[in-house]
Amino acid sequence: MLFSSFSFFVFFPIVFIIYWTLNANRKAQNMLLLVASYIFYGWWDWRFCLLLLFSSSFGFLITKLLSEAHSDKKRRMYMNLSIIVHIGILCYYKYFNFFISSFTDFAKSLGFNVDYTPLHIALPLAISFFTFHILGYTYDVYQRKYQASNNYFEFIAHIAFFPQLVAGPIERANHLLPQFANKRQFSWLKLEEGFLQMLWGFFKKIVIADTLATQVNYAFAHYQDLHPITLIIAVVMFTFQMYCDFSGYSDIALGCARMLGFELLQNFNYPFFSTSVSEFWRKWHMSLSNWIQDYLFTPISFKRRAWGKIGIFYAALLSFTISGLWHGANWTFILWGAIHGIAIGYELLTKKKRKGWSKKYNPIFYSLLSGVFVFIFWSFTQLIFRATSIEHFWGIIQQIFTAEWVMAPETNSIYLLYIVGLLIFEWFQRSKPYALQITGWPYYIKWSLCALMVIIIFSSKNLNNQTEFLYFQF
Amino acid sequence: MKTQAEIIEELNEIFTEVIDEGEVSLTAETTANDVDGWDSLNHIQIIYSVEKKYGFKFTLPEIQNLNNVGDLINLIIEKSK
Questions:
Q1: If you average pLDDT over residues A300-315, what whole number do you get?
Q2: CA-to-CA distance for A30 and A158, rounded, in angstroms?
Q3: Which of B21, B41, B64 minimises the CB distance to A312?
C-alpha cells in the first residue's frame, strides 16, 4: 500500500482509531499492528508476506539459539548460518540475474558462446530493508551487546511495523523493540507533531518530487537531443527530486509512527548544508550510514588495523561499494558506491590537512566553497545513480561536454524556484528535527499554513498520476 | 605488574603520537569528547598501538564497550594477567 494512495488514507484512520481504543491493552495493540502491517505489505502481493514471516521468524529463532549457545564455536556457526540464509535470500531475489548476466557478458567478451535467458523473479519490496534490520540485530546479539528477544509476537511485529517496513528508516532492535514492550502514551502534542511531519512529507513527495520528476524523466530519456545547460539543470533537479522523495517518505514514516506513540530513528538532517562528503552522509539516509559504520566500516577497519591508513581507505571503499550494491543490481550503483568510498577515504586521511586549510583561509569562505564543491560532487554521483546503465551515464556526460553550450535551457526553469524555496525554508528551520516543526507558531498562522498545504497537495495533478517512492526499488 | 599511573604515562605517549595534535594528558575519567582529534578512526589506531606495546589483542566488542580511559586501563591490566 502506497503512503500517498487512497487506500492508505482509508487504512490509516481505521488503524489509528482501533489502536487508541485498545489503549488499555498493549498486547491487543501489538497484535493489531502486526495484522495491519501484514495487510499493508500484502496489499502489493500477498506472497511477500510469507517471505517476511519466514525471514523474521528465522531471525528470532537464530538469535534465541545464539544467546543460549555456550561455546564460541557454536555462536559463530549460528552467526554464519544467519548471514548465509539472509544474504542468500537477498541475492536470489535481487542479484541472481545480475550475477549470471554479468558472468555471461564476461564469458562472451572472451569469445565463449553462452546463452542465457533471465529468470522471472519478482523482487519483493522492502527485502533489503528488513534483511539489514534483522542481520544487524543478530550481529548485536552475537557480539553480546543485547539479550535476544523472548517475545515472538513483539519481535515479528517490530520487524513488520508498517511505517518503517518498506523503505526504512532501518531500525535497530534496541531502539524499536522496547517500544513494543512498553505502554504507549497518547498525547495531543505528539499527535500534532506526527501530523505536521506527515504533512511535510506528503508535500515534499507529491508537490515537489513528483513535479521535478516529470522534467527529470524527460531529460534522462531524451538526453541526445538536449543541450548541456538543460541536462545540468535536470541533474540538479534529480538531486532534489531524490531528496524530497526519500526524505518525504521518511517524514511520513516518522510522523505516522509518532501518531501511534512510537519514535523512529531520524533519517535526514538537512544534508544540503554540509561542508564535507562525510558530513553529508551523516545527514543523508542516516539509518543506512550508521548501519554501514557499525556493521561494515568499523569491523573491517578494526580487522585491518595493522594496515594503518591503507586499512582505513580499504574499509571505506569496501563498505561503500557494498552499500552501492545494496541499492540495486546494477553497475551504476557499484560505481556510485565506490566513488563515495574513495571520497570518504580521502576525507578521513586528509582531515588534519583540511582543518589547517580552513584556519589558513577565512573559515566562512572555506565552508561556503566546500559546501558548493560537496553539492557538485553529490549531484554528479546522483547522475550515476539515476542513469539506467553505465552507457547511459557516459552518454549524458559526453553530451554535456561536447554539445553546444550557449543555449537557453529547455526545461521549465520555474521549477528551480521550488528548490530555492525549499532550501530557504530549511535553512531557517535547520535546528528543528523536521522543517515543518511549527508547533510553537501562533495558532491561526500555523493552521492556515497547514490548510494551504493540504489544498495544494489535493489540487496537485500529481495526486492522480501516482509514482512510487524511489527507494521502493531497493 | 604495571600500576595505573605507569599505564597512564604510557598511554599519554601513544595518544600524543597517534593523534598528532599536541601533547595529550589523560586521567582515568577522560573520554573521547575531552580530547581534540580522538575520533573513531584514531581510536582504532590507538588500540592497535596499545596492542603492539603490550603484546596482546583486543576483540571488537571489548573496545566498543570502553567508556573512558579508566576502562581501557582496567582492560589492559585484565589482559596482561
A1: 87
A2: 9
A3: B41
Cα B10 from chain centre: 9
Q: What pLDDT, on a 0 to 100 scale, did the predictor assign at position B30? A: 84
Nearest to B61 among A143, A308, A312 (CB): A143
User: Rg (Cα) of chain B, in Å, rounded?
Assistant: 12
Q: Distance between CA A350 and CA A312 in Å, rounded? A: 12
Residue B18 sits at φ, ψ, to 5 deg, of: -70, -50
Can you identify the CATH homologous superfamily of domain B4-80? ACP-like (1.10.1200.10)
Residue among A89, A14, A5, A94 nearest A50 (CA): A89
Report d(CA A216, CA A235) in Å as an integer. Answer: 7
pTM confidence score: 0.84
Grid cell in block for residue A461: 495533478
**What interface predicted TM-score (ipTM) does this complex get?**
0.80
Question: By C-alpha distance, which of A266, A264, A265, A286 is closest to A274?
Answer: A286
Is cis: bond before A228, omega within 30 of 0? no
User: How many other C-beta atoms lie within 10 A of the C-beta of residue B60?
Assistant: 14
- Mention every residue, 6+ apart, whose C-beta is less than 8 A from residue A293: A319, B40
Q: For residue B6, give how far its alpha carbon lies from the nearest alpha carbon of chain A (Å).
A: 25
Which of A139, A302, A344 to mutate against chain B (most B CBs within 10 Å)? A302
Indicate the average pLDDT of chain A: 87
From A158, A227, A327, A340, active-site residue: A327
Q: Which residues of A103-123 are buried (b: 16+ CB within 10 A; e: fewer)?
A: eeeeeeeeeeeeeeeeeeeee
Q: Where are the beta strands (DSSP E) in A281-341?
A: none
Q: Which residues of chain B are within 8 Å of residue A296 when distances are taken between CB atoms?
A: none
